Structure prediction request, 299 residues.
Amino acid sequence: MAFARDPMTEFWQILIDGFAISSLYALGATGFALIFGVSGVLNLSHGALMVTAVVAAWAAGDSLHVGPYTGAAIGVAVGFAASLVTYFLVVNPLQRTRKIREEEKEIFILTATLLWGIMIQQLIAYFYTDNAKTVAPIVQGVVAIAGVRTPTNEIFTAIVCWLVIAVLWLLVNRTRAGKAVLAASMNPRGITLLGVELSRVYIAVWAIYGVLVGIAGVLLGMFLGISSYSAGPLTASAFAIVVLGGLGSVPGALIAAYVVGYLETITAYLISPAYRTIPALLLLVAFMYVRPRGLLGRR
Prediction:
């Protein structure tokens, strides 16, 4: 991001940059909301998984000297794999165990994903240092929008995010497998009576989530420099978005992503990038008093 010189240019810069970062948040938060809506899991390793995808794409270009397309594909594949590892290694064993009472499993899973995210963050810092990593952009060049010089990759990022969200909408609403996922989010017990194995639905949802996390992570790495320290703020932003939008509500998460994205962008430009997450978290606290179930939440 380049800081603007006059108020009007600054306004357009905030508008453009805010749209790009909000689109990224919308993509990442969609997966976060989908996971909770179907399986009831608040995955607090979300930011760490995104950082993993970024570091994988960066390392592929830096060490293997692959092109931007191959590097991006590797980053998405690693994000996908990390998501499934998180499910099978951390979440699924706690869901299936009989040693923990059902009403206590949610807090155990919440804690486990938080610790898992911290472990990933520390491993990345150990092997790749905590310096910011930037992924080589797929699209080069600069375009002028309302007099503001904007990287073409920034526009490309927003377009890709919304294309992926559109494909996800079609998958969920126009395919048999997608409708099973939708039904599971509404009535998990009812879907088992129809002969659908809930475990397979969970695996499918975590697989979809992995793809979304991988794409969002790689695109974010092309847009901004990402380090291991970014895991916490990314998780905090996603958490704020899904709670503001309404836990389990994908449409609510999309709306909240733009609220949070623009709040962070305005804060970064007008105050300091160091405080960009604070206004969204303050809004979250206020919102929990006024409307605890969020904008479009069912729970």
